[in-house]
Design brief:
With 274 residues, the chain is an all-alpha fold. It has 2 domains: 65 residues, Helix Hairpins; 170 residues, Four Helix Bundle (Hemerythrin (Met), subunit A). It contains 7 helices and no strands.
């Protein structure tokens, strides 16, 4: 029996050469619309809120379609070889480092303002007239929730490695529930706070730091939610879960950042030691 093999149909390397995709350029425009509309909304421009909603919808749609293509490439087409997985792991690490730099800049502004308070804010930190939040109330509860969620997602990871799919699902569900509770309590804290983002440098740094972290919590929750859905669909196994590991690494990064926020923005600021 003669078997004709066309060598052009096979690749002689372990790398994934992605097909042309419309999502990178589409997401770029969607993020641009979202950023500009957010500024317009905060500056009180007419229809700024509607444009912000439009930008959010465009970004969410682009992310969903892009994630869909990545799932198809990894799960159904088998493009994620061991070499590709190593590249993805490196990409996730660099992404987390880039996110870390954003928080470094926020903390830089915080310590610059708090360690040498300007005379315009009374020469003291927190500035005169600012009533800080009780660090032993909602912030402490949020710390417990976030650390517990980190423990649950680690439990899910170890269960997945051991092939215990039911425990992995349970750990993922508890992580998502605790993450949603954290976000809801953060929103309640903002609503009850006695100062706004416009109240001196303290208000600006407080809302920028905790708000940026809250945004990362929402993104991390979405990441874990996608992996939870894939887990239910049997896309993730004990030998094929690089996406799950990426989401878990991102979530632990969010946990660690919150510990620094709680220690300095909540505890230290309210202790009167500055």
């Amino acid at each position: 029996m003669n078997i004709n093999i066309n060598r052009s149909q096979f690749q002689a390397h372990p790398y994934h050469l992605v097909d042309p995709s419309p999502w990178p350029i589409s997401m770029s425009f969607a993020l641009l619309v979202m950023a500009i509309s957010a500024v317009m909304y905060m500056q009180g421009f007419p229809f700024g809120g509607y444009l912000l909603n439009l930008g959010t919808i465009l970004v969410a749609t682009g992310m969903s379609l892009w994630f869909r293509d990545v799932v198809v490439e990894s799960t159904y087409l088998g493009h994620h070889t061991e070499q590709v997985k190593r590249g993805i792991t490196l990409g996730i690490a660099l992404f987390i480092v880039s996110e870390l730099m954003a928080f470094v800049s926020i903390f830089w502004a915080y310590f610059h303002s708090s360690l040498t308070p300007a005379i315009e804010i009374g020469g003291t930190w927190p500035p005169l007239g600012i009533n800080t939040l009780d660090p032993l109330a909602i912030p402490l509860l949020n710390t417990i929730l976030l650390l517990s969620s980190g423990a649950f997602i680690t439990f899910a990871h170890h269960a997945l490695i051991k092939g215990n799919r039911r425990s992995a699902i349970l750990g993922s569900i508890l992580t998502i529930i605790f993450a949603v509770l954290f976000t809801a309590l953060q929103y309640y804290e903002y609503a009850e706070a006695g100062f706004t983002i416009a109240d001196s440098i303290f208000g600006t740094v407080f809302y920028c730091s905790t708000g940026l972290h809250g945004f990362h919590v929402i993104v991390g929750t979405l990441f874990i939610g996608v992996q939870f859905y894939r887990l239910l669909q049997h896309h993730i196994t004990k030998n094929h879960h690089i996406g799950m590991e990426g989401a878990i690494a991102y979530w632990h990064f969010v946990d660690v950042v919150w510990l620094f926020l709680y220690a300095f923005v909540y505890l230290w600021a309210s202790s009167g030691l500055l």
